[in-house]
Amino acid sequence: ANSMILSLNSSVIDDLITRLDITSLDMQDFSAPAVNCFVESMYSGELEGCDKSNFRDLNKMGHVFNVTWFTDRCLEFFTEQVDTLTGRCYEEVLYVVEEARFVEESLKKENFYRFIDG
Q: Do 37 and 58 touch, CB atoms closer than 8 A?
């Protein structure tokens, strides 16, 4: 991926490249499809290919690399998932509750459950 494009989107990546002279990153903490989606999104400026299977990794990457517009789009995806809940499908309810818990505990973003209470 072009480091200039990634740097324009992420202050963290920009610091890694310009201040620390790091030219590659180990992304093994994230799934390959999520990394590809993240990079493609940095090029297009839109969250592309986000689904339930990769949302957690994408949202985490957005926070780790401090890409505000990207985390905003992840939040939009999450709220769409909450808004489409019918309350009858256990798997769908479990998914949004688990993701809200992960965001609050792992990413230290408080009040993520407020989207479920609605």
A: yes
